[in-house]
Amino acid sequence: MNQDSLIPANESERLAAVHRYDILDTPIDGAFDRITALAARFFQVPISIVSIVDHDRIWFKSHHGLEVKQIGREPGLCASAILQDNVYTVVDAKVDPRTLANPLVAGDFGLRFYAGFPLQTSDGFNLGTLCVIDQQPREITEAEKATLQELAAIVIDELELRLAAKKAVETELALREAALEATRAKSEFLATMSHEIRTPMNGVIGMTELMLNTKLTSQQQHFVETIRHSGEALLTIINDILDFSKIESQKLELEKQPFNILNCLEESLDILAPKAAEKNLELAYIIQPNTPKKLIGDVTRLRQIIINLLSNAVKFTKDGEVLVSITSHQLPAGENIEQNPHLKNCYELQFAVKDTGIGIPTERMDRLFQSFSQVDSSTTREYGGTGLGLAISKRLTELMGGRMWVESTVGQGSIFYFTIIAPSVADGSLAQENIIPPQLVGKQLLIVDDNATNREILMLQGQSWGMLTYAANSGAEALDLLSEGKSFDMAILDMQMPEMDGLTLAREIRGLPKGEKLPLVMLSSLGKLEIGSEVDAVKFAAFLYKPIKQSQLFNTLNDILAQQPIKVETRNCASLHTSFDSQLAKQLPLRILLAEDNSVNQQVALYFLEQIGYLADVAANGLEVLEALQRQAYDVVLMDVQMPVMDGLATTRQINAEYAPTARPRIIAMTANTMQGDKEECLQAGMDDYISKPIQLAELYDALSKCQPKDLPLLEAGKIEAVEYQEQALILKSDDEQSPLTNSLIPSAIDYKILQSFCSTMGKKSSGIVVKLIDCYLEDAPKLLESINSAIATVNSTQLRHAAHTLKASSAALGATNLASLSHKLEILAQAGMMNSASESISQMEAEYNRVKVALEREKQHHEF
């Protein structure tokens, strides 16, 4: 037989189908072996085969009764069978001219009978055969042919199932890879977005920390600390989206550090207090006395959960109150105590955030903890929100070993519960925190507040300190108690009460014989009390703001009754600066290079350095860092990670390649990124230390304290070298006092309040700093506008976005809010690739810059004189 005649016309497509099924050279398979065994038994033949015809061989997937695993394709009976659409039969191979040359017929094997049915795919390709073989000649009936066809169909079905399974696996792998790629892209986008948001936040938090170094009244100090805590909380919220991505990929890791549970709760409440005061909501908390005051866990994540629940409660409550309560119980000692000794002090804490808000329908509660979901679309329209907060909070709770659930009644409010498991630090409970002074024991305290929850909390607190407490729910009831001859040692009056407010009540009390010298404490919501002549006339002993902090209340009561100055537990602003050595530079003379492209971040970092005795040279990108290192030696480089031209990582690698370890400066990374492994990436690039943005003075101080100056080369002209080094080390001398900002007229292009606030923060050096900032801005802004024009002309969205972003940040820092807003819009257009719309904005920006320039030059003249 001509070999060419045994090749199907569609051979290349057929072979492609063979390989698509991926069956060749696969291991023994019981499913196919059962089919061949069944065929052999049914036809009463010794041999049955499932064959696959390859380009040069016939490979046997199953070979019942035959030891051979494959034979050559030509001449081959199966090669002939795949040319058919029906059963290919050889009754007696020794007399059939088609098979006389076949070695299985002519050789010792003695093949006489063959019947094979092609294994045809659904798209018409014959892959091979199911065949039966005998060493005796025989006939095959039509019924037997039909049976062989049915068995061949079973073989094909098995192949199709395996192909489908293979495709499903491939599809799943492809989808998984696509999902991973999407997650990676999303994570990179979120990291970039986080960095862009964190950059202006660095200025906000940095300036508030600097403001805390100045002299502040108690109220101003409270406001500034709240701004700072709010800024830090905002950074946490910025990370929420990143957290969600990390949680999805199971890469979120919780810290295990000691923290004070009372501080955690009070700081969370401080953040929501202004919003609650705006809505006239009562905000309060109560903690079970036996709760351990110090635990081990992730305080940032716990605060994140509390703030989210509080924020929702305040948002969805129009009137009434929001109450946070904490209860706890110690868990039985677990197994493996020797390996995990902290388990014997493990507690389960239950938090409850109760509000008197709109409530949640029962049928919609299941949507609460789903990602990007709220109760209904009208909720989103009226109250806003992404719908991520509860989903993240629930997952964080589960990571802390607890759970989260809700109870709610429509129109009455909701209670969100969550639990955490945490080991305690052996530092006592909240009940043991204060040693009760004798001046409180037995003293009679009058509490006047129309809110029942506040009355109960104040009464419980007073009673825990041994006081005898009396409550009145209105001014009239309080006056009745006093008129009846009841004597009190002190009274706490709520300012915001219906019918008779706290100030009116205080005046009435002062008119009573037993109220003339009664110590009165005014309780008010944040921002609601303006201390004027009327308040002064009443002569209050102290003022407290809601939500009342236990430590503040304790110290207030104690100090008033002891007739000592009030020692409310607050941060000591005056001593903050002295906790750091302002002359660190004299003890540790370091030549510092600051690598930072953002002007606001530059000024914050430079001023922090000034606080501890240093100045620094500044580079705006990695190339400038390399050039600066070629000009002179530095002991330290404070390296921003994300910079234009050359970023901090690439710059560090270049420095390590060019300089010996003993000759190169110590490199400290500064980054706003919070992605998993950011610190490790910096250290792997060759950086020596790492501080996060917004920069904290304490972190900067600690990082610099680890540095050492390089040995100085000795020259004969030692005095010249010493003077030159003195200039490089930049040890500060005291500056002359300069005039603060006065109320000069600021054109509408500049927000005067921003400049005034900046100058107040900087203190007596403000004028010089403002002039320097204005000069820097007026030099950089035209270049940025030129870069914006160039980017629009060349349709370069990346360049446009960077230039607009930089101009936005610089303008906002100096109070050019309108220009900053225009720059921000341009940045958004560049990010969206809407370059045509961007070109329409440039003339408006240039005109606004001219107005800003005139205003800043006028302001500069004012500071110079």
UniProtKB/TrEMBL annotation:
The modification Phosphohistidine is found at residue 805. It comes from Crinalium epipsammum PCC 9333. Signal peptide: none annotated. Residues 766-859 form the HPt domain. It comes from the Bacteria. This is Circadian input-output histidine kinase CikA. Residues 444-561, 591-708 form the Response regulatory domain. The modification 4-aspartylphosphate is found at residues 494, 640. Keywords: ATP-binding, Cell membrane, Kinase, Membrane, Nucleotide-binding, Phosphoprotein, Transferase, Transmembrane, Transmembrane helix, Two-component regulatory system. GO terms for molecular function: ATP binding; phosphorelay sensor kinase activity. GO terms for cellular component: plasma membrane. Residues 192-424 form the Histidine kinase domain. In the N-terminal section; belongs to the phytochrome family. Pfam families: GAF (PF01590), HATPase_c (PF02518), HisKA (PF00512), Hpt (PF01627), Response_reg (PF00072). It is an enzyme of class 2 (transferase). It is found in: Cell membrane. Its main location: membrane. It is a multi-pass membrane protein. At low DSF concentrations, interacts with RpfF. PROSITE patterns: HIS_KIN (PS50109), HPT (PS50894), RESPONSE_REGULATORY (PS50110). It catalyses: ATP + protein L-histidine = ADP + protein N-phospho-L-histidine. The keyword Phosphoprotein applies.
